[in-house]
């Protein structure tokens, strides 16, 4: 079954450093997303991406965040200058069709990258 | 807030029993989805129900949707210890493409 792959699974970084979280969405999917989950809290939407541009973003997704699909395969989330409060699990997801996945099967999420800012 | 809110927050049952989790929301939706998350792991899509559907089944899962009450329920029948996880509802609204997740129900199925 196709998977969304995220790397690394765990990243520890110093406050103020830049981090890049990487994702390989399912190959025939057109819509890509980043979500995050602070420990013990809800899963929160960050950004959606379609046709090489951001289609929607949340208030959390400020100027410190950026996304890119550099090579038609990878989908990256960059945090320019990390803060302690950026520590969270970051999930990448993709879908074939806007709002739903193939056959109405929902989004496919990756296993996440646990980011720890120290 | 338009988020889904699940109840109960935590549920502990014996293997073989049924587990029912509820989700309420505040806005009109396109569809509602249920996800499962094992501790510290990724989100696994379980089932999607569209706003014009009232009930859907998938294996041991049964989802209902009442748009007049803005609520949904997820029933897991004949639960197993392996069903122990957190379960989240997520709503898709309007013309957007973001899912808004609820707070989740932590299910523990004991042997």
Q: Which geometry of chain B do the CA atoms define?
A: globular
Most residues in contact: chain pair: A-B, 30 and 27 residues
CATH superfamily of chain B: Immunoglobulins
What is the helix tally of chain A? 0
Mean pLDDT of chain B: 91
> What fraction strand of chain A?
over 45%
Strand and helix order of chain A: EEEEEEEEEEE
Rounded to an integer in angstroms, the radius of gyration calculated over CA atoms of chain B is: 13 Å
Per CATH, which architecture of chain A?
Answer: Sandwich
What gap, in angstroms, lies between the N and C termini of chain A? Answer: 36 Å
- Total helices of chain B: the number is 0
Describe what you observe in this structure.
The complex is a heterodimer of chains A (118) and B (111). Chain A is an all-beta fold and 118 residues long. Helix content of chain A is 0%, strand content 48%. The radius of gyration of chain A is 13 Å and the shape is globular. In chain A, 38% of the residues are buried. The mean pLDDT of chain B is 91. In chain B, a hairpin with a 6-residue loop joins strand 9 (85-92) and strand 10. Chain B is globular and about 45 Å long. Chain B has no helices and eleven strands. The A-B interface holds A 31, 33, 35, 42-45, 48, 50, 55-56, 58, 89, 91, 93, 95, 98-101, 104-112, 114 and B 3, 30-31, 33, 35, 40-48, 50, 88, 90, 92, 96-104.
